[in-house]
Amino acid sequence: MADQEEEELRMALRMSMQNESPEPKRSKPRENAGGGPAGDPEESPEVKSRKVQRELMAAAAERRMMAVQSAEKRVVPAKEERGVGGRTEGQKCVADSVGENLNLGKELSVAEANQLFLMVFGSEVTRDILAQWSNQGVRFSSDQETSMGLVQHEGGPCGVLAAIQVFVLKYLLFLPDELSKATTNMLATSGSRISPRNEGVAPDDLSASLTEDRKSRALVRSMAEILFLCGGNRRAVIASLSILHHSTEGSQDSSKDDVIAKALESLSVESGSDLQKVLRVQAYTTQASAYQRLEAMLPVFRSRMGAMLFLISALLSRGLDSVQADRDDPSQSLVTAPFGHASQEIVNLLLCGEVVAHVFDGRMDLGGGMFLKGISANVEVGFLTLLESLNFCKVGQYLKCPKWPIWVVGSESHYTVLFALDASVQDENEFEGRETQIRRAFDAQDQSGGGGFISVEGFHQVLKDTSINLPSDKLNHLCSSGFIVWSEFLQVLLDLDKSLGGLKDSTGLMGKKVFDLYHFNGIAKSDLNGCQTSSCGETPIQRPRLTKLRVSVPPRWTPEEFMADVKLPSDTSCKDTVVELNKPEPSQHAPLVDCIRTRWPRATCNWVGDPPSIV
Fold first, then answer.
1. What's the per-residue H, E or C state across 128-174?
2. Among 24, 398, 557, 606, which residue has the least CB neighbours within 10 Å?
């Protein structure tokens, strides 16, 4: 009886280490188990028990060796059936990059790795640019005032960090209830989203109440949303590094960052071959499995390779062939020379899921079967750029008016973030909505590359599509030069009565808007505000910058039109009071204000302290 119990115990032990229960190997069939043939000596129970034990242990060892060898050569798909401990069946028998029993993923082929490296960096990339992209993690600021922001220490990857940042702010400010759900239960909330808040949490209150756990949850949700957006909502590919496997096994959470940093000390990625040796990728088909993987991978993304790994994950989620098909000029690298900045294509991929180079709505037909690709659909978070104020491009309504009042802001060399706490800052009244409708119809006929003018034929189509009835004298004046400029057309609309399809408002319904915006620059700079230096000559604090701006948007009409259309009391002092109330506030200027005015024309801005910097 004791021998039988011991055998069952060993059998149970072996089954616990394998997915299925194999038959033990035997040197020959055991017939007449109760005793040998006549004339053969019968083995004692003790001898038979030891023989069976040896056979069982040998079979188990062989099966385990075969499983390990197989896991190193194949990709285990991330099945969605949950296994022991809430893990997927495909994740149970292989080790992940932070020391748990998850799959590292597969290697890219040499051809795929070379294609990926050349696509991102080109064939003449400098070591300085590679160093920038190999030394930037995805980390939150340690400064309490800016603790909800991702901090940047290297130039170049700011486009990746800013794109992640706007999604993080979406969850922290407007969808905080979703962060209260356990990561393993996030799939349930992703299908039927909790009602969002119309007003976000104030940055001061947010910083005071923000825990590391909530920030991590927001980051996981944001990264997963971006990767699935890139993957057409069908898949997310997550990239890791093979060299992190053994070095982090058994490490505590508090020491994983240090262990990973040490493991990466000798890592240098200077070619597709270097990338192929260390890169491992894994595809996930549901958000629940991706959440779990990303949560386990957070120490890796915080490492110096984090920004590059996330960009690679986004590109592979999109698919290398699809990436090249999206682009107008696939021969150019996505990281631009000579300074290593993230291109507009990278930012658009992370915001919109497509690697397009332009920011206008839809496609622009150049004739002869040629066209340029812009933004194809509405987006969750948007984009504004200083280049529009300089007339180098035209941001379409999709990016300019996203679902949430959060924007990546582009300058000539850097990406920062602008956001509001109140979603109503984007609400349009009747006249603003009408202008948006007309502008979209105008832009649909604009073949100038964002120059803001259309042909006479296109202009007549705009009038038809938007039911505008222009008097003949105004129509002839606008068409006299052979093309129609938007700014001139808008002035005519502002003087055209609503009954004729215009925007003239003599009732004051449009009114003046006053609201607050916040600007976050993630690059760590010396902060001279708030007595950050002492008389003893202490070193200024190196931290990101968060600036609050008071924004005033005057009515659409000019002061002369306002005075002509609104009856004022005869009392002079009262008249002066009304004029003073409607006079724009004294404004401060910085390049960010020019960006804001591309979204809210004629806006004036005020702030306290140093001007907000977009470089």
1. HHHHHHCCCCCCECCCHHHCCCECECCCCCHHHHHHHHHHHHHHHHH
2. 606
Give me 33's structure tokens: 């188990």
Dihedral of CA atoms 78, 81, 83, 87 in degrees, nearest 10, equals 40
CA–CA gap between residue 356 and residue 364 (Å, rounded): 12
Q: Determine what percent of the chain is predicted with pLDDT higher than 90.
A: 53
Phi, psi of 509 (to 5 degrees): -65, -30
Helix segments in 390-446, DSSP class H: 397-400, 430-444
Range with lowest mean pLDDT among 74-83, 148-157, 253-262, 410-419:
74-83
Amino acid residing at 588: Q
Quick: pLDDT tens for 541-570.
Answer: 678 999 999 999 887 654 444 434 444 444
Q: Which of 592, 410, 425 has the alpha carbon at shortest distance from 605?
A: 592
- Give the tens place of pLDDT for each residue, 237-273: 999 998 876 555 555 555 788 889 999 988 999 999 9
User: Would you list the domain boundaries of the chain?
Assistant: 430-499
At 607, the amino acid letter reads W
Helix %, strand %, coil % of the chain (to 5): 45, 15, 40
- Choosing among 3.40.50.300, 1.10.238.10, 3.90.190.20, 3.30.980.10, the CATH entry for 430-499 is 1.10.238.10
Average pLDDT over residues 303-326: 97
Specify the pTM. Answer: 0.71
pLDDT per residue as tens digits for the range 339-365: 999 999 999 999 999 999 999 999 988
Task: Tell me how far apart the terminal alpha carbons of the chain are, to the nearest angstrom.
Answer: 79
**Chain length of the chain:** 615
